Amino acid sequence: MTNEKKQKSTQVLILGSGAAGLSAAIYTARAGLETVVLTGPTLGGQISLTAEIENYPGFPEVLSGVELISKFQTQAERFDAQIDYDSASRVDLSVRPFIVETEGTIYSAQNLILATGSKAIPLGVPGEEKFTGKGVSFCATCDGFFYRGKNVAVIGGGNSAVEEALFLTRFADKVTIIHRRDSLRAEPIAQKRAKENPKIDYLWDTVVEEILGDTRLEKLRVRNVKTDEVSEIPFDGIFVFVGNRPVSELFEGQLEMENGLVKVDPLMHTSIPGVYAAGETVDGFYRQVVISAGSGAMAAISITKDLE
Ligand code: NAP
User: Engineered SS bond to 76: which of 25, 59, 290, 291, CB 3.0-4.6 Å?
Assistant: First the structure.
C-alpha cells in the first residue's frame, strides 16, 4: 500500500452503484449510518446500459436505465449517502475495519456491502476484441444512435437480445437477431413485439465464428449449426447479448463463493461477519432491478439490526 493515498473511514462502505448498492445506501443512510458508495466504473452498472425499463413497480411510464438509476442516486444522496466515483482495485476482508483500496484512496469500513453486480459475457470469437468500439458493442443505449439507417446484427435469444433489438429499430434500417437455436428464450411479450416489427429479421441455428474487417467491422463469418454451412454476411455493427457473469474477482479466496457468486444466508450475511452482499453479486438467476433493489435493502436492514 502506498502512503500518498488519501485515507477515508466510514461505518458502511458499499461497493457498486446499481440497484442493489444504491438501495442499500438509501436504507443505511436513512438509518443514520455513515455511508459511502463506490460507484465502480459506471454509475448504475448494468442498469445504465438498459435502454428501457417498463417493469419496475411504481413507474408505469417507460423510462431508461439512466433515468431510473439517477432517481435512486438522488434518493440516496437526500439521506446524505456519499457517492464516490471510484473503483476498488483491492479488497482486504481479513482485517476489521475492512480495507478497500482504489487508485487514489484507502477506505476502511466497519461494514461492507458487496454489490458489484455483473457484466456482459463476450462471444469470445476472433475479431471481437479488435473491433469492440469499432462496430462491436455491448450496449444499444450507448451506441444505437451511431447506426441510424444502418444494418446491424444482435447476437443472443434472451430478453436482453430481443428488447435491445427492438430499441435498435429506432435507429437502424434492419436488425437481424442471430440465435444459436431455432426458438427464443425471451419472454413472450418481447418475442411478440419483435415478430411484429418489420425491421427485425432472424438467422436461426446460427453462431458467429469470426468478426471480420479492416479498421472496423465489415462482416461476420457465421455457421449454421444444423447444416454446418459457413457464410460471410456484411453488417455495419453487431450488438452482443449472450448473458452476464458476476463481477467478483476481487473477493475470490477471501470468502465463500460458488460459480463466481458470493454465498449469503437469507439475511444477506456472507461467510465473514460485517460483510454483506446483494444483487447480482449473489443472484445469477432473476437479474431484475426490483430483485436487486430488494436484496440491497435486505443487506442494509441486516446491518442496522446487527448493529443494534
Ligand atoms: P440469457 O437469458 O442468459 O440469454 C442469453 C442468450 O444468449 C440465450 O439465448 C443463449 O442461447 C445465448 N447465448 C449464450 N451464450 C452464447 C454464445 N456463446 N453464443 C451465442 N449465443 C449464446 O441473458 P439475458 O438476455 O442477458 O438475460 C439475463 C437475465 O436477465 C434473464 O433472467 C432475463 O430474463 C433478465 N432480463 C430481464 C429483462 C426484463 O425483465 N425485461 C430484460 C433483460 C434481461 P440459449 O437460449 O440457446 O441458451
Answer: 25
Verify whether ligand 1 is closer than 6 Å to residue 242 (CB atom).
yes
Residue 48 CB–ligand 1 contact under 6 Å: no
Average pLDDT in the 26-47 region?
96
Give me the helices (H) in 31-117, please: 65-78
Question: Residue 95 to residues 89, 91, 254, 272: CA-CA distances in angstroms?
Answer: 17, 10, 11, 10
> Could you tell me the maximum CA-CA distance found in the chain, to the nearest angstrom?
65
Q: Which residues participate in catalysis according to the annotation?
A: 139, 142-143
Rounded CA separation 65/51 (Å): 6
**Residue 84 and residue 40: Cα distance in Å, rounded?**
9
| Mean pLDDT value across the chain | 96
Give the Cα separation of 115 and 17 in Å (integer): 7
Ligand 1 center to 87 CA (angstroms):
27
pTM of the model: 0.85
**55 CB within 6 A, ligand 1:** yes
- Domains of the chain plus CATH, in order, are 6-119+244-307 (3.50.50.60), 122-240 (3.50.50.60)
Q: What are the residues facing 257 on neighbouring strands?
A: 262
The span from the CA of 233 to the CA of 219, in Å, is 5
